[in-house]
Specification:
Radius of gyration: 15 Å
Number of strands: 7
Number of helices: 5
Order of helices and strands: HEEEHEEEHEHH
Largest sheet: 7 strands, antiparallel
Oligomer: single chain
Distance between the termini: 38 Å
Helix content: 25-40%
Structural class: alpha+beta
């Protein structure tokens, strides 16, 4: 195993932003993903980010979904985002095992892109909890925010 990838895996944490292509979403392009949950150091749950605010807003309004479920993440010094980015909390987070992350790292298919603020993380958790599209059983697994 690569020492670089071992360090990459050891550094996985809540609020961190990663960039990669996921077969679990409807696009083959790379997207930013933010870690919202980690289970037993064996799997990571991430929300996918988008810059398509108007499209997501119209979709959410057409289904009468709460405004709190579209979370704005500002580009700042803590992340490498170069434009306003949004999390649509009406989509169940994608799940990857730590081994999936290791495989992507070894193949150089994933990159670390910084970290979101505590405020933005809390807004994402609130948005997931407010969403009628997220199952109650999943909501129970979300980290507590104070």
């Amino acid at each position: 195993m690569s020492a670089k990838c071992d360090a990459f895996i050891d550094a996985i944490a809540l609020k961190k932003i990663y960039n990669f292509s996921s077969s679990q979403i409807k696009s083959i392009d790379n997207h930013y993903f933010i870690v919202v949950n980690i289970f037993d150091n064996s799997s990571v749950h991430l929300v996918c980010c988008t810059s398509q605010y108007e499209k997501r807003k119209k979709f959410n309004e057409s289904r009468d979904l709460p405004g709190s479920t579209l979370v704005w993440i500002s580009p700042d010094s803590g992340n490498k985002l170069n434009k306003d980015t949004y999390i649509d909390c009406n989509t169940l987070p994608v799940k990857y095992s730590i081994e999936d992350f290791r495989t992507m790292c070894l193949a150089e298919l994933i990159s670390y892109e910084g970290i979101i603020s505590e405020y933005h993380y809390e807004q994402a958790i609130i948005g997931l909890r407010d969403s009628p599209m997220i199952t109650e059983s999943y909501k129970l697994t979300l980290p507590k925010i104070e």
